[in-house]
Amino acid sequence: MALLAAAAIVLAGGCGSESDGATLTAHTAGVPQVIDCPFHQAVVRPDTLILACADLGAVVEEITWSSWGPEGAEGEGTERDNTCDPSCAAGNMVTKPVHVMLSALVQPGNVFTQATTVDAAGQQLIRPMTKR
In terms of domain of life, where is this protein from (predicted)? Predict the structure, then answer.
């Protein structure tokens, strides 16, 4: 009897591990990610996207994502842009609400490679994102 119980535990444990691992791998492999700068890790639904990695002169913060999938991602956030006036080192930051969209999903890697922001005046900014 004890032998049957032990066998049942081993079989159940083996089946559970394989199933959980396959589910986890399939789930994580299917969710698109974004890498805003080469020194960052790939993430899903980040709160902040850096659009100008060299000087942090364009950043979208406080992002609330309304959709996220292989066909694209969309959300609302606050963009901070450096005016670079009189120079980028001494420029002022302008803050405005924007609609942000991620697109151009590439394989392998499953990452979005383009970010587009549109402000209330309809001004559009398109920036490349980092590939793996």
Answer: Bacteria
Residue 113's closest CA among 124, 100, 128?
A: 128
pLDDT by residue for the chain (132 residues), tens digit each?
A: 443 333 333 333 333 333 333 323 334 458 999 999 999 999 999 999 999 998 889 999 999 999 999 999 999 999 999 999 988 888 899 999 999 999 999 999 999 999 999 999 999 999 999 998
How many alpha carbons lie under 13 Å from residue 94 in its C-beta half-sphere? Answer: 10
Asked if 59 and 49 count as a contact pair (C-beta separation under 8 A), the reply is yes
Its pTM stands at 0.76
CB distance 51 to 127 below 8 Å: yes
Q: Where are the domains of the chain?
A: 1-30, 32-128
